[in-house]
């Protein structure tokens, strides 16, 4: 079971890669350079902004938008769903520049600034809810994970039954 489950999970590496890589799984278009970028409608509850770790660091703030203007203060950053972190199959490392927990659906805008010129700096707004949903909606990935867990749980039981039912090697007199 453990072997079959492992094969099933490994066969879904493309699903895992495309779901966990912010360059492939992001809301709207990548955000490049300084500016105010409308995000459009955000419907999930947890969003994070990531950049490649070796890129020029951007400071990011999220605002609610009404019409075409920013409303109120920037949202305060809050950590959400810390068990879901992005990663890339090619080994690229990412730095989280912002994290927000939203209470409702609405239109928002990202305001990015840099201490030094960052015309080429790129970032991605990620819905952590979408990462979770995409991974958990992959039937083969979930089935493979369940097979691995079942294999891990049944291996000690099977080994105990095997050793208990083995005939004794004591000489017969």
Overview of this structure, please?
By secondary structure, the chain is of the alpha+beta class. The protein has one domain. Helices cover 31% and strands 31% of the residues. It has 4 helices and 8 strands; from the N terminus they run ααββββββββαα. It has a 4-stranded antiparallel sheet. A 4-stranded antiparallel sheet has the order 2-7-4-5, with no helix packed on it. β4 (59-66) and β5 (69-71) form a beta hairpin. α2 (13-20) runs antiparallel to α3 (128-136). The longest helix has 27 residues, at 139-165. The protein is elongated, with a radius of gyration of 24 Å.
Neighbour order of strands in the largest sheet: 1-8-3-6
Distance between the termini: 42 Å
> Low-confidence parts lasting 5 or more residues at pLDDT below 50?
none
How would the global form be characterised?
elongated
Overall structural class, as computed from helix and strand content, comes to: alpha+beta
The number of domains: 1
Brief summary:
This protein has 173 residues and is α+β, with helices and mostly antiparallel strands. The chain has helices at 2-10, 13-20, 128-136, 139-165, and strands at 27-32, 35-42, 46-52, 59-66, 69-71, 94-101, 106-113, 122-127.
List keywords for this structure.
4-stranded antiparallel beta sheet, membrane, transmembrane, transmembrane helix
List the helices and strands and how they pair.
Blueprint: H1 2-10, H2 13-20, E1 27-32, E2 35-42, E3 46-52, E4 59-66, E5 69-71, E6 94-101, E7 106-113, E8 122-127, H3 128-136, H4 139-165
Antiparallel strand pairs: 1-8, 2-7, 3-6, 3-8, 4-5, 4-7
Helix pairs in contact: 1-4, 2-3
């Amino acid at each position: 079971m453990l072997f079959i489950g492992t094969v099933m999970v490994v066969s879904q590496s493309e699903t895992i890669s495309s779901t966990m890589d912010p360059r492939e799984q992001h809301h709207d278009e990548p955000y490049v350079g300084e500016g105010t970028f409308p995000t459009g409608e955000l419907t999930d509850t947890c969003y994070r902004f990531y950049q490649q770790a070796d890129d020029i660091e951007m400071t990011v703030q999220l605002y609610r938008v009404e019409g075409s203007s920013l409303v109120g203060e920037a949202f305060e950053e809050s950590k959400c769903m810390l068990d879901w972190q992005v990663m890339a199959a090619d080994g690229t490392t990412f730095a989280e520049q912002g994290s927000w927990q939203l209470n409702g659906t609405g239109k928002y805008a990202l305001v990015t600034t840099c201490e030094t010129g960052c015309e080429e700096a790129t970032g991605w707004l990620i819905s952590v809810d979408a990462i979770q949903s995409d991974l958990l909606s992959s039937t083969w990935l979930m089935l493979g994970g369940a097979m691995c867990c079942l294999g891990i749980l049944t291996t000690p039981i099977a080994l105990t039954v095997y050793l208990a039912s083995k005939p004794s090697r004591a000489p017969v007199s």
